[in-house]
Each structure stands twice: as structure tokens, then as C-alpha cells.
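task queued by scheduler; priority normal; single chain, no ligands, no partner chains; default sampling; output format set to C-alpha cells
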Amino acid sequence: MDTIEANHALGFSTDGRDFALPVAILHDLMITRVRLLSNNPDKSRALIDAGIDVELVPCEVTPNPHSSSYLKTKREKMGHVLSHTPGKKRK
């Protein structure tokens, strides 16, 4: 099973994280713009929907035999912004 199928088999949602607390903290600190180091579109969407200006800065590593399938699932099933093709090295 991939990470999503395993979560569902265990009775969990695809990604059980809730971004309401980080949004509340940013609002409390009156932060209106961030540089977000992430590939997760749900994180950036949560901040944008909360009225925070987001500059998305992707974070990537070269896939290896242990991470390739996981990264492929993240890209194909969760929409993560990944420029590489799992299993192939970036130039």
C-alpha cells in the first residue's frame, strides 16, 4: 500500500493535518506574508484562504530507491509540487 492507502486502511483520512492553528498564530502575530518552504498545496491553500500572501518555495531532494514510490504518490495523488520524476536524477 502507498501512504494514502495505508492511512485509509487504518481508518484515517488521506492527510489528517489541520492548518487552523498555524493560521491562527500567524494572524495573532499580524503576519500577512510568508515564504512557505513546502511542496504541499494544502498548506499554501490554507494560508491563502486565510488571507495570507504566500510565496511558495519548493523543497526537494533527489529521489532514491527508498523514497521514489512515496514521492510519486505525493505528486500524483496529493498534488504536491515536485519537478523531478521519481527514480530519475535531476540535472
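post-processing summary
- Strands lie at 33-37, 53-57.
- The longest helix spans residues 68-78.
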